[in-house]
Amino acid sequence: MCRHVGYLGPPVSLAELLLEPEHSLLEQTWAPDDMRQGGTVNVDGFGVGWYREGRPEPHRYRSLLPMWTDTSFASMAADVRSGAVLAAVRSATVGMPVVVTACAPFSDDQWLFSHNGRVDGWPDSLAAAASRLDVVDLMTLDAPTDSAVLWALLRRSLRKGRDPAEAVRELLGEVLAESPTSRLNFLLTDGEVLVATTWWHSLWVRGEAGSVTVSSEPFGGTGGWEQIPDRRLVVADTSNVTVTTLPDA
Ligand code: GLN
């Protein structure tokens, strides 16, 4: 399954965060440690979203190349600094297309979103939920994948002003009601707060003075990382990390 990372804290370069550390997201592209029956490598493209000081909307770079072969990104990553980043490397679920628009993070206004996992029974299992999307939602679907539909549903709630943690929790419940064996590790940010779930995939959090990192796998050494148990909702900013248990599906 895909791997994702969210970071909030003092500005760092994208290279310092994603490429240079021991077992970085870059290394997790070809040598992830904990894929849990979801593929072996994450080479079906990648994406990075980052925020700039004083601007609520993030920038985004997505590529269909495996992260390690994208030399344009590598040269840019050393020069781009940000205090809020969400990045993901993709391993396409069987039956879903390998297209750049299927690579997280998905984006809308100030939001960035990633899904690590799969919706079992796709696409039928999402038909009931998707029937509530309107024409504009469907026309602006990023890609014909489970994750893109999940994003369209979440984006709809966020546009209505729903609290992000509540919107994520509702989405999880809605999907599990139709497809209880789904794997649903979500990661959402607006550059101020990170909201994440664990539902059948790994997640780790490292809170340090003034920064917080949420990642599918620990990187940059094992010190300071806390493993999040399965079936949890994580809400984190640079001063607090709250972990709550999610109800059974
Ligand atoms: N199902 C999603 C996709 O195909 C996510 C894949 C994953 O987590 N490996 O894009």
TrEMBL record:
The keyword Hydrolase applies. It comes from the Bacteria. SUPFAM superfamilies: N-terminal nucleophile aminohydrolases (Ntn hydrolases). Pathway: Amino-acid biosynthesis; ergothioneine biosynthesis. It catalyses: gamma-L-glutamyl-hercynylcysteine S-oxide + H2O = S-(hercyn-2-yl)-L-cysteine S-oxide + L-glutamate. Residues 2-249 form the Glutamine amidotransferase type-2 domain. It is an enzyme of class 3 (hydrolase). Coiled coil: none annotated. Its EC number is 3.5.1.118. InterPro entries: EgtC (IPR017808), EgtC-like (IPR026869), EgtC_Actinobacteria (IPR032889), Gamma-glu_amide_hydrolase (IPR052373), GATase_2_dom (IPR017932), Ntn_hydrolases_N (IPR029055). PANTHER family: GAMMA-GLUTAMYL-HERCYNYLCYSTEINE SULFOXIDE HYDROLASE, GLUTAMINE AMIDOTRANSFERASE DUG3-RELATED. Catalyzes the hydrolysis of the gamma-glutamyl amide bond of hercynyl-gamma-L-glutamyl-L-cysteine sulfoxide to produce hercynylcysteine sulfoxide, a step in the biosynthesis pathway of ergothioneine. This is Gamma-glutamyl-hercynylcysteine sulfoxide hydrolase.
